[in-house]
Prior knowledge:
Largest sheet: 8 strands, antiparallel
Bound molecules: guanosine-5'-diphosphate
Amino acid sequence: KENKIISRPPVVAVMGHIDHGKSTLLGYIRKTNVTETETGGITQKISAYEVIHKDENGQDRKITFLDTPGHEAFSKMRERGARIADIAILVVSAEDGVKPQTIEAWKTIVESKIPCIVTINKIDKPGANVEKTKIDLAEKEIYLENYGGKIPFAEISAKVGTGVDNLLSLILLLSEMESLEGNLDENANGYVIEVNLDSRRGIMATLIIKNGTIKKGMTVVAEDSLCSTRIIENFKGEMIDEASFSSPVRIVGFDKMPRAGAKFQSFNKKAEAEEEAKKFKTSGKNKKEDTNENNKKIIPIILKADVAGSLEAIEKEIGKIQNDTAEFKIVLSGIGPISEGDVKGVSSGAEAVVLGFNVKADKSATEIAEKRGITISFFDIIYKLTEWLAGEMEAKRPRVETVEVTGRAKIIRAFSRTKERQIIGGKVVEGQINLNSTVKIMRRDFEIGRGKIVNLEKTKTKTSMVEEGSEFGMMIESKIEIVAGDVIESFAVVQK
Ligand code: GDP
């Protein structure tokens, strides 16, 4: 068989501290290298794009940029084992130098073993100090070429465009050294980088192809989500029939929301794809709740509002509702009534929250919601909405079960046992002990068994409870023989 392996374009992620110029750089490259057609005007921008740059031999070469906001690019890269990006660009402002997120990004890059180009930005600014920034980097053990290390670097102004061409050339050089390869004849695989729910079109996802070719008529699987590739769009939103490695594509019509960051595969036969999805389901991997990189549970929100102004304000407020164990993610937002398409992507039993602000729900949307047991909530005052959401987060966040000691008693006297019952006497030293409760039997701080209190007496009269400081007699049912000096502990399992 002839060797079909050829070199493939690099996929590049831009990282760095907030305000150091990541978006400006991505925007500049996009603007100067991509001729975007106005398709419809309202199509959601795909969060990755391709540019063509000439290599040292004057040949046109492609580069794919992940155009995701800072923290998202992060979490994508952090996905266990996922190598969505082939090359990382670490943006450092020459004005501010190394900042906490610079270091955090650097750690992520090192952990993922992705080659990196340090990009010193804002060199046009009067306060820029390139030399100081390089020294600053070296102090943080980020050693640039000629500064004690081998990390290639570029000095740029993302705003004016100085040095950006050189940066693109560096990317191509580095990518050549990495000898990135792929095979056009294989079926495409890669990663889901973004998921959108469109009320008109349904569930769509942006994929980055890491190898192979995706064609119309194939079936894509990402974990247990399936999609027939009837509609494939390039990053400009234009319909295409096929695409291959390193290209971002959007496909439309998933049966359920895939997970951003999930690996995808494509198959010629639908049955094979379904088989793959089944494998995932039975592997038990899907039993885990949908969590992000911090292991926080994600609660999806679908939000419709009457005007753009309130939509924006609400989105901002929702971003502020935080919890250690859960966070909201707006998976779909838009202006207008809640339509059938808005709720169609929400499966039964999902914990998604559907919200309408100053809008109503279409009859068909209400029907679907009822059928699937999805509640749609309506508001006309923003703070009421956010208050309600805070309560929802509290109700939906994952619970940890903990065992809390509610009472502790020292055994002073232990009488003989008959069968599995024993009479003992003691004193409550903490909390209270209740009749019919199950207690732990502790000897030298170790639990040696459990027992159930079947009879409880205080000053020779039957009682249902003895409190701290009181002496008692009790009959306990247990497999363990209790002796004087043991401690019994009553406990409750609480959800926190
Ligand atoms: P991000 O948070 O890293 O995406 O940073 P942004 O791209 O949003 O940039 C933050 C601010 O720095 C914006 O006001 C940009 O206009 C400005 N900025 C970014 N790059 C440059 C640059 O090269 N020169 C100058 N003068 N300003 C820049």
